[in-house]
Fold this protein.
Amino acid sequence: MKDYNCKNQCTWCDGCGNYGILTAIKRALIELGLAPHQVLICFDVGCHGNMSDTLVGYRFHGLHGRVISLSAGAALANPDVPVIAFGGDGACFSEGVGHLVHAIRSNYNMTFILHNNGNYGLTTGQASSLTPRGEKMDMAPLGTVEEPLNSMDFVFSLNPSFVARGFNGNISQLTNILKSAIYHQGFSYVDVLQACPTYNKFVSHEYLLEKCYECEPMNFETARKAAVDTSEKIATGVLYQDKTRPTFLDQLEARKGIDSRLVDEVKKVDVSALLAKFS
Ligand code: SF4
């Protein structure tokens, strides 16, 4: 674990669910035999993004809502390096949602881990598109008036190749989920229910421990039903996986029979003549 530990101090609130997710990702990487120099870890903007200060490795902290697109680019450029992207529900289900749509349907070979805490924690508790209607938030003290997006129904509507759900209170299960997600060839969507005791008063650690139960992978329709219906209990585990689906890169005719990587094919081009023409 020490290989992945950074000496920077964690700035998360006491009791934040991010601590459990940080432990699980470190364990997953170690159990997969991946050293910090063998993996690319990308972060969106949000409380979870502060993990980029506390986890050793090749790290890229991108713009708000853009972590999936930058990670997909890296995964296409060098498929030899596993790419893991972390994002929050605030960024990835608002301005970043278009990137999520196309990453799922393209089946880029990368792992996306959603820190689903039901609000914008970093900017002090505004409602996200996953906050339940009527919840009293900092910027909506009388209760939110908008219908929440059903993230699991949305993801399943895009015909994903891998969908999992975990929560920060079961680190051993989450470690196994993350290992399966990183190992999967294609776009792995991992929804991690994360307690935010500072701003989210409707999903506590106790609530998650009581509601979550473990499942085995299911067929598409059963998994979708189990993932969407959280009224009584919340299904967790690798819910659905299609191991036969080719990745985006595997399907490109133009790349067939080519052994080099895009990252090796970048060349310096002299544009001075072009610049001179228009100067
Ligand atoms: Fe964690 Fe919430 Fe504090 Fe952010 S605001 S560090 S998500 S507890």
